[in-house]
Amino acid sequence: MYVVPKGIEHRPVALGECSIMLVEPRGVVNTGDAGGVYTAPNDRWI
Predict the structure, then answer these.
(1) From CA 46, how far away is CA 35, in angstroms rounded?
(2) Rounded CA gap, 3 and 42, in Å?
């Protein structure tokens, strides 16, 4: 497990196929403050 500290910009990249499980608190936007076409709707919770 790796925890990205709050406020640190990050962009995970894999050279081959991989599987991940991303755990974030409710209300976190997937693109942070950047916004744009890659921002996912923030309304799905498991």
Answers:
(1) 23
(2) 21
Q: ∠ CA 9-12-13 to the nearest 5 degrees?
A: 140
pLDDT tens column, 1-46: 788 888 888 888 889 998 888 787 877 777 778 878 888 876 666 6
> CA nearest 8: which of 24, 36, 26, 32?
32
Cα dihedral: 35, 40, 41, 46 (round 10): -140
CA pair distance 18, 15, nearest whole angstrom = 9
pLDDT at 15: 92
